[in-house]
């Protein structure tokens, strides 16, 4: 798909995401909104997946390490056809298979995730398994920037380089805000490029709010370079909803009825302009 088409799809997903969080009564909407563009690009353009056959052996694997942003994943999986709107509407209800973190009972979800720092080690294992089995599929792992304080990530970073996992792509959703404030006040990670390059990774930095840059980065990955890949996706917390952008409280904030309608109106206007 072209960048404009994917931008439109991301806005459609964004509108649905706001509905999901509002109707479900809970969610990490700020981080959902910041990583939604990348997730839309992965599922609608980059990854080899089949909603009619979610477990096909040759599929690409996706791990949402920042599992608290599962509402964005639900919106994308619904739009792609892995799960139904009726199922997604059960989020927050008693006995729903959907929860506040990814679970493998949901079609299209590969692993239970959300304990921060676990996603990349799992992704390393998946990528290593593909290498050992001489398979061509790729593994993609989406992490948060607040998550970078977890030591297990750096053990996985060393292992990924040690085993030359050029079939592994990690993404950091670099929106600068975690639940306790600015990442640079909590645990500085502004050396992220130099840090991961030193670990032996192929590192790119992009504007993750811009679909053209997202597509360019993914389409130009060299899967034969002998190095695992990291995309540092600089994004805006709460992207696409004016009163949420770059505001820490929206990490886990819930819009009231008036705020919900404002968000829907803003996104709807962009959808119409893109059409």
List the helices and strands and how they pair.
Blueprint (H helix, E strand, L loop, with lengths): L2 H22 L4 H18 L14 E4 L5 H11 L4 H4 L30 H14 L6 E6 L6 H12 L5 E7 L2 E2 L2 E2 H4 L5 H7 L3 E6 L3 H9 L9 E6 L22 H18 L1
Parallel strand pairs: 1-2, 2-3, 3-7, 6-7
Antiparallel strand pairs: 4-5
Helix pairs in contact: 1-2, 1-3, 1-10, 2-3, 2-9, 5-6
- Which class best fits the helix and strand makeup? alpha/beta
How many beta strands in the DSSP annotation? Answer: 7
Oligomer: single chain
Poorly predicted regions are: none
Can you tell me about this structure?
This protein has 275 residues and is an alpha/beta fold. 43% of the residues lie in helices and 12% in strands. It has ten helices and seven strands. The chain has a five-stranded parallel beta sheet with strand order 1-2-3-7-6, sandwiched between helices. Helix 1 (3-24) packs across helix 2 (29-46) and helix 2 packs across helix 9. The longest helix has 22 residues, at 3-24.
Task: Give short descriptive properties of this protein.
275 residues, alpha/beta, 5-stranded parallel β-sheet, two-stranded antiparallel sheet, 43% helix
């Amino acid at each position: 798909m072209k960048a404009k088409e994917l931008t439109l799809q991301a806005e459609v997903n964004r509108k649905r995401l706001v509905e999901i969080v509002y109707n479900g009564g809970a969610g990490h909407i700020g981080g959902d909104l910041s990583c939604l563009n990348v997730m839309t690009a992965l599922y609608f353009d980059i990854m080899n997946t089949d909603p009619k056959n979610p477990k096909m052996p040759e599929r690409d694997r996706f791990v949402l390490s920042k599992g608290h942003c599962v509402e964005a994943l639900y919106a994308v999986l619904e739009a792609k056809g892995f799960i139904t709107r009726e199922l997604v509407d059960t989020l927050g209800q008693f006995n729903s298979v959907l929860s506040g973190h990814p679970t493998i009972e949901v079609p299209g979800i590969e692993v239970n995730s959300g304990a921060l720092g676990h996603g990349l080690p799992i992704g390393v294992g998946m990528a290593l398994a593909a290498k050992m089995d001489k398979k061509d599929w790729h593994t993609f792992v989406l992490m948060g920037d607040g998550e970078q304080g977890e030591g297990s990530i750096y053990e996985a970073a060393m292992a990924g380089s040690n085993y030359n996992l050029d079939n592994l792509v990690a993404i950091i959703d670099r929106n600068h805000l975690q639940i306790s404030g600015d990442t640079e006040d909590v645990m500085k990670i502004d050396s992220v490029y130099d840090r991961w390059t030193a670990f032996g990774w192929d590192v790119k930095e992009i504007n993750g709010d811009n679909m053209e840059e997202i597509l360019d980065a993914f389409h130009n990955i060299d899967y034969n370079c002998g190095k695992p890949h990291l995309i540092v996706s600089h994004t805006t917390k709460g992207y696409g909803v004016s009163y949420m952008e770059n505001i820490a409280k929206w990490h886990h904030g819930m819009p009231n009825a008036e705020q919900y309608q404002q968000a829907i109106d803003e996104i709807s206007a962009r959808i119409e302009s893109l059409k």
